[in-house]
Amino acid sequence: MTTAYNDWEAPVVAEGVYAPQEDSQLLIDMMDKTGLARRRRVADLCTGSGVVAIAAANQGATAVDAFDISPRAVHFARQQVSAACVDVSAHLGSWARAAEFGPYDLVVCNPPYIPHDPGIEELDLPSHVGPPRAWDAGCDGRLVLDPLCASVRDLLADGGTMLLVHSEFSNPRKTLAALAGSGLDAEILASQWIPFGPVLSARAQWLEDTGRLDSGRREEELVVIRADKAGGDHER
Ligand SMILES: C[S@@+](CC[C@H](N)C(=O)[O-])C[C@H]1O[C@@H](n2cnc3c(N)ncnc32)[C@H](O)[C@@H]1O
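That is the input. Now the predicted structure with S-adenosylmethionine docked in place:
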C-alpha cells in the first residue's frame, strides 16, 4: 500500500520536542485503517508530543501508556493528553520501561531512525527541526530499532501486534528479518515517498558517499512494518 500526502505542515510543539511529521501521520493512519487500537491496550514507545498515543485513545483504545526519554517531551505530552481529555499515561524513561506495564495488544513506535555520522558536525539545521535525540540513531540508523526488534515480542500479549515506522535508510529488510527471528510474523504494511527534510538534506552527501543514496535523489521512502505475535483471537 502506498500513501501520499500533500502540503503537510508540522503542528507547533514546545521547543525541544519532535513536531509530528509525515512518519507520525503515516503511523496514525495505519493504526486507524487496521482498527488495531480499538478496545485494546496500547503502548506508544517513543511518544514525543504524544500525538500517536492520543490518536490511539481517540481510536478507541481502552488504555494507553506512552514512553519517552525526554523530560520536555513527556511534559508536553502530558499537557496534550490533559487538553484532549483522553486516558493516556505518559511515562518518563526508555521505551524498554514498557515491560513494567505490559503486555500490550498493540505497540506503536516512531523511533529515532536517521543514520548519523558522529564525525560530522551539522551547523546548518534550523531550530524548528527539534532535538537530535529524536532522530539520530547511529551510523546505520538502528540504535533503537535493533534492541526493539529483539525484545518487542515480550512486550506483546498473545495475538498482539506492533506497528513500527521508519525510513528506507535504516534498512527495513533487517527489521523484517529481526522480527521474524524473534518469532513474529512481519510484513511491510504501507509505504510513502516524501521529500527530504532539513536533516536528511544535510546528510545527503554523506549518504551518497557511503553508497546509500543515488546521486541527486532527494526523497526517501517511509515504511510501516506490522509484526504479529501468534495466539489470541485478533483478526488480521
Ligand atoms: C521521531 S520522534 C517521534 C515522536 C512521536 N511519536 C511522533 O510520531 O511524532 C522519536 C522520539 O523518541 C524519543 N526517544 C529517543 N530515544 C528513546 C528511547 N531510548 N526510549 C524512549 N524514547 C526515546 C525522542 O525523545 C523523541 O521524542
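Residues 18, 20, 24, 46-49, 51-52, 67-70, 73, 94-95, 110-112, 133-135, 144 surround S-adenosylmethionine (CB under 6 Å).
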